[in-house]
């Protein structure tokens, strides 16, 4: 049985990924912009991919992200259409290099 986005979200929270990251053009941010973390300042620890059975709009990716520099762990949820967003090449590569084939 497949797990849902919500189930994995709860599980990853229990593992200490408590920040909510937002994707920006050249960084991820949290705490309403108090932290801007660039591609070389974070790592993607885990990735969970969810495909909507009937609605492509339900497709999303849950990233478990940590930043040793800022001592932060959190999550980023994004749609599969992430590459249509205006991201820097470094951010696109960072998010792509950690995806499962």
Task: Give keywords.
single chain, 101 residues, alpha+beta, 4-stranded mixed beta sheet, 3-stranded antiparallel beta sheet, 2 helices, 34% strand
Please provide a written account of the structure.
The strands form two sheets. The chain has a four-stranded mixed sheet, with helices on one face. A three-stranded antiparallel sheet has the order 2-3-4, with no helix packed on it. The protein is of the alpha+beta class. The protein has helices at residues 5-14, 89-97, and strands at residues 19-20, 22-23, 28-30, 35-37, 43-50, 60-67, 72-79. It is globular and about 30 Å long. 19% of the residues lie in helices and 34% in strands.
């Amino acid at each position: 049985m497949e797990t849902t986005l919500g189930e994995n979200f709860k599980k990853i929270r229990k593992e200490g990924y408590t920040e909510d990251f937002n994707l920006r053009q050249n960084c991820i941010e949290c705490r309403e912009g108090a932290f801007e973390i660039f591609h070389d300042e974070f790592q993607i620890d885990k990735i969970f991919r969810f495909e909507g059975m009937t609605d492509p709009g339900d497709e999303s990716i849950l990233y478990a992200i940590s930043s040793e520099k800022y001592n932060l762990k959190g999550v980023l949820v994004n749609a599969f259409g992430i590459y249509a967003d205006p991201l820097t090449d470094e951010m696109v590569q960072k998010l792509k290099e950690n995806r499962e084939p």
